[in-house]
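Chain particulars:
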Amino acid sequence: MENVAIFDSPGKGRGLKATKEFWAGDVIFTEPSISAVVFDSLAERICHSCFRTQDKLQRCGQCKFAHYCDRTCQRAGWAEHKLECSSIKAFGKIPNENIRLVSRIMWRLDKEGSVVSDMQLTTIDELEDHIADMQEDELKDFKVDIHNFLDYWPRSSKQHTIDDISHLFGVVNCNGFTVSDQRGLQAVGVGLFPNLCLVNHDCWPNCTVILNHGKIELRSLGKISEGEELTVSYVDYLNLSEERQRLLKAQYFFDCTCEHCKNRTKDDLKLGGREVEGVKPSEEEVKEATDFCFETMAKMEKARLSGDYHKVVKYCKECIEKTEPILADTHIYLLRIWSTLSEVQAYLQYFNDASEYSRKMVEGYMKLYHPNNAALGMAAMRSGVTHWQGGEIEVGHAMICRAYAILMVTHGPTHPITKDLEAMRMQTEMELKMFKENEYVYHSMREAALKNKPMAMMHEPKSVEEGIKNMFHRKK
C-alpha cells in the first residue's frame, strides 16, 4: 500500500504514517472487511449480503436465519454463508454476532491463508487481543462465547487450539468496526478490517473513517505532512477529557495521553456558565443547573421509551427555562437537551420550534468540534432540513451548504448521504432564488405544495445518548 507505512509510534506501539502529503477530503486508503455480520437484533431486517435495510427480505430456506434482498444477494453471499448455513442447522440455534463473525473469519483464513489481499499490511496473528487486560466480568462472558463457539464449530472444519480461538475473539472484541446500512445512518453490523486496526487513536485526529459501498475509507480531515502519524478518534470528542479517558481505558485498554486530554482542552466550555456582560454565574449555580439537566435527561429518556413525546417536550422546555440563563451555549448537557427537543419537535412537526433549537445545537457544536467533524456535518444537515421544513429557506439553505462542505471532506462525493445532500442543496438553492424574487409567491406555492403532499412524519426520536455514535464497535 503506497500511501502509508507501518512504524513504531512512541507510547502506542505499531501505527500508520503517511508516505506522502494529503489534503482535506483525500482518501488515504480503502479496505474491504475480512468478514462482517449483521447484528443479532437486526437479523431479520437487514440483508446479510449487501447490508441494506429492506421492508421485505427473503429468508434462507435451509438455516431459516440469513435474510437477503433477492436471489442476486443470496448468490453473492453464498460463499460466506455456505459453511455458516450448515453449522447453524447442525447447532440447532443461532450463535451470537461475535461467534458468527469469528467463525466466518476463521473459515476464510483456513481457505485463503493469513493474508487475504495484496493490500493487507498485517495478519490477524499480529493484532492485539488484550485478553490479559480484561476485567473478571468481561472474562466470564468471553469464556462463555468460546464455550459456545466450540459447540458450534463443525467437526468437519479445521480444528484450532483454544489459544488461537481466544486470540481471534479478543481481536474482534477490541477491533471490530461498525458496519452501516446503505445510507450510512444506521449501524447494522460489525466487521473486521485489519489495516484499520493499525490506525491509532487521538481525541483530535487528522483522519476519519467512513463506510462507503461496502468498504471503509480512511479520509484526511486536513493537511497531513509526509511522515505524520495517521489517527482517528475512537470516542466522541463531546465527552469531557476524564470521561474519554475512562471510556478508552475500559473499551480499548490504553491511557490516552493526547494533547487535548493532557491539557483538558475545551473542558471549561463543556461544563461552563453563561457570561453576560462580563458577569458569570457562581460555580454553585452552574453545578445546580448541571445536576438539573442530568436529572431531566433521565426523565426524558423514560418518557421517550414509553412513546410520550409531548412529555419529552414538557421536560425539555422546563429544563431550558431554568438552565439556559445559567449554562454556556457549549455546555454538553444543554446541547443534549436542545438536540433532543429539536428532534422530537421535528417528529411532531413543530418545525419552527425544532429549527430554533437545532440552530443553537449547531452553533454550540461549532465551538467544540473539529471544523470537519462528521457529527457537526450531520447536525448541520439535520438543522438545515428542519429550517427548510419550517419555511425558513435562507437559514435552511445556509445550513445545508455548511453540511455539504463538511461531508464532502468526511464522506466524499460518492457517498449516498452526500448525494442526498447535494440534491437538497440544489433544491434549496432554487427555492431561495424564488424566495428572493418574490416572497409572497414563494410562500403561496409552498403552502399549496404542502396541501397536495403533506410532509411525511419524521423517524421516531432515538435515545438521548445515541446521536452520532463512534464507529468502533465493541461487544459489551
About this structure: Confidence is low (pLDDT under 50) at residues 463-471. Residues 8 and 14 are 5 Å apart (CA to CA). The chain has 15 helices and twelve strands. The radius of gyration is 24 Å.
